[in-house]
Amino acid sequence: MTNRTGLVLDFGGVLTTPLLPAALAFERREGLPEGTLLHSLYLDEEMVRRTEDLERGVLTQAQWNAAAAERTGLPSDDLLGRIFADLRPETMLLEAADAARRAGIKVGILSNSVGVGSWDLYAGHDLENRFDAVVISGDHGLRKPEPEIFRLVLDGLGLPADACVFVDDTEAFLPPARELGFVTVHAEEPRRTVAALEELLGVPLTAKD
């Protein structure tokens, strides 16, 4: 088995609580029918394009908010931040990342950006000091699943893909990573994700009682 010495983590939905429950809670607060955001924003071809532009840093958060407001009839002010206001740090994964670094594993972040604006998904997490490499899509004009952005985080870690595990809650981003040589984990439930990482990396990542 390849000696795996690197771990690459998505941020939103992996190191935070899941995105979908946060969006559904927003719909309930706003009195919207369940699925409004999915159909208006994430199944609409034009909004999908705008979201990809947001992630590449081509579109500002305010521009995305204005377009989303037109489709939902909601106020545009900090709309993206309001949609995901219920996101919280996923403590189990954050602690596992810290434990991996203590065990000598290099840990990187590879995240599709939420754009420049009033809401900062990464605020308070001290990413630059807590991780060995941090690649946020909007800083580079790229987005997952483009191969070039995976190569950027590998360059930051100084490791080949086959020495790394990649974790993402978006299943569609995993096959492109595997094509590059990563072993991948689909993050669906924190405890299962950490257990999979312990097995793949060969180090304990949880505190023992």
Description:
There is one protein chain. The protein is an alpha/beta fold and about 210 residues long. It is about 45% helix and about 10% strand. The protein has ten helices and five strands, in the order βααααααβαβαβαβα. Helix 7 (about 125-130) links the parallel strand 2 and strand 3 (about 135).
Task: Name its key features.
209 residues, alpha/beta, Rossmann fold, 2 domains, 5-stranded parallel β-sheet, 45% helix
Helix/strand layout:
Elements: E1 6-9, H1 19-30, H2 36-42, H3 45-56, H4 61-72, H5 79-83, H6 91-102, E2 106-111, H7 127-130, E3 133-136, H8 147-157, E4 164-168, H9 174-180, E5 183-186, H10 190-201
Parallel strand pairs: 1-2, 1-4, 2-3, 4-5
